[in-house]
TrEMBL record:
Protein name (database record): Release factor glutamine methyltransferase
UniProt: substrate binding residues: 188-191
Taxonomy, superkingdom: Bacteria
Catalytic activity, EC: 2.1.1.297
Lineage: Bacteria, Bacillati, Bacillota, Clostridia, Lachnospirales
One Pfam short name: PrmC_N
Keyword line: Methyltransferase, S-adenosyl-L-methionine, Transferase
Annotated InterPro entries: DNA_methylase_N6_adenine_CS, HemK-like, N5-glutamine_MTase, PrmC_N, RF_methyltr_PrmC, SAM-dependent_MTases_sf, Small_mtfrase_dom
EC primary class: transferase
Family per record: Belongs to the protein N5-glutamine methyltransferase family. PrmC subfamily.
GO BP, one annotated term: methylation
Amino acid sequence: MSTYWEAVKEAGRKLSIAGIEQGELDARYLLEFVLKERGISFDSAWYLLHRQEEMDPQEAEEFWKLVGQRGERIPLQHLTGEQEFMGLCFRVNEHVLIPRQDTEILVEAALKRLHGGERILDLCTGSGCILLSLLSFGNRLIGVGADLSEEALDVARENQRRLSLPAKFVKSDLFENIEGEFEMIVSNPPYIATEVIEGLETEVREHEPRMALDGGLDGLTFYRKIIQGASGRMKRDGWLLFEIGYDQRAAVCALLEQEGFLVDECIRDYAGLDRVIAARNRKEEGGTRDV
Ligand code: GLN
């Protein structure tokens, strides 16, 4: 038997040995999860008050099982089933990319360019985190999310129900089954070059969906296809916003310019790396009238 404090320390040590950087922090998150399941809302104040108490045997069993799984490098979010994004709680599983903090920059860049009532298309929607955040914080937006994976769409629809937002999620290979025109298209597509995937950390390489990561030989496959299809789905001045890899700015800007888009802004992430591109469609033939 051990106290909460001893259990967290010991689990932290085990996770660190397994190669997890902030092992003790993950141990605390796992304890929080176990206690939450039992109706206890764990926070620093609770921990301070109760950490010297003996852990209940059932709690301990559940906790050590999760610590073992985390030690096998299963992502924390797959164990708890959720990830916060834009202050909202999203359900996640092994069929969707875990929402990343960097992607919030894309959402913020999109919100800055919206006034209200726009139709928005999110390609490669995954958990739906981008589209649902836009609908949550924007004004009367109409949202469509597309993904090729039926399992990912199940997750996106569950998130939609939990957040009570009116998005429509469609099974579609990019634009294939998408109807209508949009004022804005957003996407955080798979953008990692195939051969780079093998060098990623175990959690990502072995547990996140390959199809959410793999951007083809040069990582740019989805940008090419989306940029080629986008102007036909929007009027002149419609917005196209992407998350990009840190070294893809020049290549994606060139693709955009080739297809008649004008790059408006490239935004860096908190690490100072290029992360988001916002561009406008300057082609006339994409739509029937100017917006
Ligand atoms: N759009 C989702 C996200 O940003 C999924 C992205 C992906 O699967 N590449 O989290």
